[in-house]
Write a structure and sequence with these properties.
The chain is mainly beta. It contains one helix and 23 strands. A hairpin with a 6-residue loop joins strand 10 and strand 11.
Length: about 290
Amino acid sequence: ITSRDMDVFLFFTEANSDGGDPIGNHIYRYLWNGFDLTEGELIKKLPGDVAHAHVGGVMTTGLDGTIFAVTGDNRDEGRNQNFDVEATNNDSSTIFSIEPMEEHYAIGIRNSFGITIDPVTGNMWDTENGPKHGDEINLVLPKFNSGWKKIMGPANEKEQLSINIPGFQYSDPEFSWDIPVAPTAISFVESELFPELKNSILVGDFNTGNLYEFKLNEERIGFVFEDPLFDDLIANQGEPVNEIIFATGFSGITDIEVGPDGMIYVVSIGDGTIYKISPLDQHVNLENQVPC
């Protein structure tokens, strides 16, 4: 869900009735009148069999007000998944703008549960889930090709040469996990209560319940690390990740937001709880946090 002024956009799988058979993955625009969502309007139908996985569904708002959404591959194997086929209007494996409606901003995305905009540069970032390896954090510049279904994680030269969809440019992830942690929400923290985070990105994961902090480089297009183990920009199996841990103990993070009070709120779907993080320390533990 994302909002701008009084407009609210919802991305969901729609059914004929509560608990009934799904009929499609849709994006609606509503009007928020301060009490209710009204005047629902279907503005986007997404492709594929809704019974399939890799639907995506996260949205974000650019600094210019553009509304972006991401959808996964929905098990498709076409041009957007880097197969040598004719271009189609299929939106699978893409990041696209829904207001205004424009061509694909990015392709080659297996599945994503996190996109966000840098409040300083306006650049987009995403998280992506790999199959059995290669979870990613990406800087998503316009006409980015994330490489799926040819690549997950950093690519060798041969793999890079296999990515040749005209008009789109592949680049390696800014960070990846060798063993999947299922990264989900990604967020910049604009809060006077957390000045130490103004040049960082927070990322949550589903598998371990960790909340990570990645410090940006001076250009804000990549990350900097003190541990030489991260020189390859990969969390390899068995390597300690203490440097990037910000908080622990959640049960499947699905969202990270800064509230009007400046506090950080984390949705933990596994225990059905929203946690509030106070500015107690740069590295915190869930035992110090307050369920909302």
